[in-house]
Each structure stands twice: as C-alpha cells, then as structure tokens.
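Quick one before lunch.
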Amino acid sequence: MKLTLVQGDITEQRVDAVVNAANSSLLGGGGVDGAIHRRGGPEILSECRKLRAGHYGKGLPAGQAVATTAGRLPARWVIHTVGPVHSASEDRSGLLASCYRESLRVADTLGAASVAFPAISTGLYGWPMDDAARIALETVRTAGAQVEDVRFVLFDAAAYAAFEARL
Ligand code: AR6
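Model of the AR6 complex:
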C-alpha cells in the first residue's frame, strides 16, 4: 500500500473513494461533511436518507463506516464514517482507529483501489492533530487492506506538518 500526504481540499481528489468525517445523523453538517455535500450535490444526501430509512434508522454509530455514491465529486464513492468527539477524561482512540479500519474494509468491499482520508475528528470534534496523525497512520499501515493507494488530504499547513512528522 502506498501512503501519500496532500495539502488541499478533499472534494477535489480524483480517487475511487473519498472518506467523509460525518456525524451519526448522516444528514450533513459543517467541515469536510458540508464541503462534500455541497460539491457532490443532492444525490449523496438522498442516499444517506435512504440509509436512515433502512438499516441505519438510529444513525451511524461512531467508529463505523458506510458508502454512498459520490454524486458530482470526481470520485466513485463517498465512505461516511463517524469519528469520536475528543475527550480529556476518556480514551476514545479505539473508536478513531476503527473509523480508518472500517472505512478501508468498506473500500475493499467496493473494490476501491484509491482512497482519500481527511484528518477525522480533528475539526469540530476537537482531536489534537499530532495524536490524530499517529492513530491514522498506524491504523492504516497495519489494517491489511487491499486498497493500493491511500491519500491523506490535510486542509492546512499545520495538519500537513503533523502528518509528515509521523510518516
Ligand atoms: N478538505 C480536507 N480537509 C478539510 C476540509 C476539506 N474540504 N474541510 C475541513 N477539513 P471536521 P470532525 C479538515 O470538522 O472533527 C461536521 O459538522 C479540518 O480542518 O470536518 O470529524 C460533521 O457533520 C479538520 O482538520 O470533522 C460532524 O458533525 C478535519 O478536516 C463534525 O463536523 C476534520 O474536521 C465532525 O467533526
């Protein structure tokens, strides 16, 4: 598996699957989630609503992942995963690792060869970037996935530097 770092906007990545840092409702939000739904168009939300009407009636739990179309994005699929909210009193790193592992498992099921990840939980959910980079890289490296090309798309220079230091 090839691991690469890119500084930029995840909605511009030409990959088989783009991972969304969603919330349990699957119905959109800010940050990466907002950008993906805005650029990808209403088809993504419409598939998310169908998931909520079916198997995910109570929403998608933290640490799990599910795929939809990528709509108008230059990708085939969006893999929605829900990161944990960072907590100073409780270690939730297992759930953050699970987001990466489960997203890769879904990507393998789809037959996706290339996947772009954002730094899950490091925005609204408050996870410190250095620790998030460590968990992301360790988990993806040891996941044993078939995916050939994993790209971490970091929004700003500080996030890029944190991942670069850990790679
Ligand atoms: N491309 C790449 N990275 C981005 C982009 C982008 N277009 N936009 C933001 N980031 P966040 P979370 C970075 O908040 O912490 C949403 O409202 C951002 O700088 O998107 O998992 C959901 O609906 C940060 O480093 O996700 C949930 O309610 C990282 O992506 C909640 O936020 C993740 O920030 C999820 O919070």
